[in-house]
Amino acid sequence: MKKMNLKPSVRKKYLILISGVVWILIGLLLNHYAFNWLTENSYAHTYVYVISGIVLAIIIHHFGFLKVVDKNLGRIKTLNTETCVFAFMSWKSYLLVIIMMALGIALRHSMLPRNLLSVIYIGIGLALILSSIRYIRVFLKSE
């Protein structure tokens, strides 16, 4: 009887693409929440919240997420040519994602005003999108 392989594997080049796409999708989701909050409540000076979120995004992108991307790309490059599709993140990163999701849910259910929460969501969401560009560039340059 032939043994069934239940470990979905891909070339490591595609792990880089998966990472970039996941970061883009999460960034879009966070920005979707933020812009819905800003538009449904018609806050005065909405542009101030958006610009604040953009400034926060640039800071998070430059001083935080780019380091994470570079570390993750370095880890992926050390993997076998064919590896598990879920290896696009380390197991420690999966734990961090769970913690970040829990914090996001807690923030959404907190008493924090939605206009201020939108700044945080735009900041993190746009930083994820900006940082994902490095994944996409590396994927496009790889063979």
Protein traits:
mainly alpha; 143 residues; 75% helix; 4 helices
Order of helices and strands: EHHEHH
Count of helix runs: 4
**Approximate shape:** elongated
Class from helix and strand fractions: mainly alpha
Helix content: over 70%
Rounded Rg:
18 Å
How many domains, in number, for the residues? 1
Main sheet: strands, sense, barrel: 2 strands, antiparallel
The end-to-end distance, rounded to whole angstroms, is 36 Å
Strand percentage lies at: under 5%
- Main sheet: which strands, in order across? 1-2
Average pLDDT rating? 89
Number of strands: 2
Enumerate the spans where pLDDT stays under 50 for 5 or more consecutive residues: none
Kindly describe this structure.
The chain is mainly alpha-helical and 143 residues long. It has one domain (10-141). It has helices at 12-40, 46-77, 91-108, 114-141, and strands spanning 9-11, 82-84. It is elongated, with a radius of gyration of 18 Å. The termini are far apart.
Question: What's this entry about, in short?
Answer:
The protein is mainly alpha-helical and 143 residues long. It has helices at residues 12-40, 46-77, 91-108, 114-141; strands spanning 9-11, 82-84. It has one domain.
Summarize the SSE layout with pairings.
Elements (H helix, E strand, L loop, with lengths): L8 E3 H29 L5 H32 L4 E3 L6 H18 L5 H28 L2
Helix pairs in contact: 1-2, 1-4, 2-4
